[in-house]
Amino acid sequence: MVENDQGVVASKATIARLPGYLGYLRDKQAEGVENISSTAIAEDLRLNAVQVRKDLAFVSSVAGRPKLGFAVSDLILDIERFLGYDNVTDAVLVGAGGLGRTLMGYEGFKTYGLNIEAAFDVDSDLIGRRVHGKPVFALEKLPGVVKRLNIHIGIITVPKQVAQSVADLLVGAGIKAIWNFAPTHLQLPEGIAVKNEDMAASLALLSKKLSEILKADAPHQKGA
Amino acid sequence: MVENDQGVVASKATIARLPGYLGYLRDKQAEGVENISSTAIAEDLRLNAVQVRKDLAFVSSVAGRPKLGFAVSDLILDIERFLGYDNVTDAVLVGAGGLGRTLMGYEGFKTYGLNIEAAFDVDSDLIGRRVHGKPVFALEKLPGVVKRLNIHIGIITVPKQVAQSVADLLVGAGIKAIWNFAPTHLQLPEGIAVKNEDMAASLALLSKKLSEILKADAPHQKGA
DNA sequence: TCCAAATCGATAAAAAAATATCGATACCGA
DNA sequence: TCGGTATCGATATTTTTTTATCGATTTGGA
Fold it and tell me: Burial, A92: exposed, middle or buried (Cβ in 10 Å; 0-12, 13-18, 19+)?
């Protein structure tokens, strides 16, 4: 739960939906749409219209107008401001392997207000080189760089066996938020934000949905 | 919401937590632990013990024993069975760029019961080659391959501009579940399972947590 | 053998999130 | 100009999810 300026409270679920609205609204704006109703957004994004109105009311004081809806450009500005996409946050990445390099090359992060300053690895073939324009340093250099650049976010893209020790290193260096792509649960002290990018959980949900669909499609297979 | 054999109902949240339990229990088993209590699991995974017991009761009929807890090996078996990790599901991937190749090379999917059979792309430099041992075909070949191998899952790792058309192609080919890594919301017909791997949403949540932590750490900066 | 302690499983309560309802309002077309 | 209507925003309700409570039970040690 998070409070905004007015003391209104929003759920985590609301915050998680905001980037979705933003992307959708940017697309609409590019199409030349100037106003849009909560009904229309809800239909396209497969959400409930009341939920959309509540979510938008949380980040924006823009009033929706009957018969017209909301001004797209105003909404975009307010969501961007709320999500902090206007002021970029710096991050470091640990583990310049396949996934790490992919993230380093992902242009979309700019749009999300995230900037990966540097990467760290133990592989001597990588150290000293640049990947997508970003330097790769030896892991030992991490505390110095993090402190010098006053970086708050660490991205972990190492094998799970070493994820915990990397997390400890990051925390020791003063990192306050960890985006963990390793498939393991990290033990961290209080006061550190973590988000696990849990592909296994996603896959589990998808598989369950799929098995229900397959069951529904072919419900009479008892004798097969 | 999903029903199990006994008609007991589990939330999506429960299903999303199951892979976490599984990974944790496998680690414990490797350490030689034979029994574990819900209390201990909850503490390590930062969950509520009651929630852990409920989650486990949903997938497993294994009874926990007072003072001892649950038999680790039994739990592992039951969770694997529930998640379908025992019988591997085949998938195709569209978009053999950076992220696509990373996923193709990810060994962990085996553990999750997922097998990427083949990839598809429009880049003629990639077509006909193999990436991490898996063939890359021209996009036009997709319907034939999907139908011939009777594949149900499609993974989308293309730029967002073409994600919708790829989704349409997959659905047309008979795919029933889509794992979407493109940062866009797909319009799909009823009866198709989708899971959006939404990094922007994750990042939004992490950023909000971080800003609260920073606020708490330095609450008296008004005059700065 | 018996007692203390830890844990379970069931039920109840609380919290969080999603959805429904409804009067008010501003737009659009006749 | 005026009536019909889509939409809003506020409030109420329902549903879902999490957390608390508590008696019952089994183990391990005195």
Answer: buried
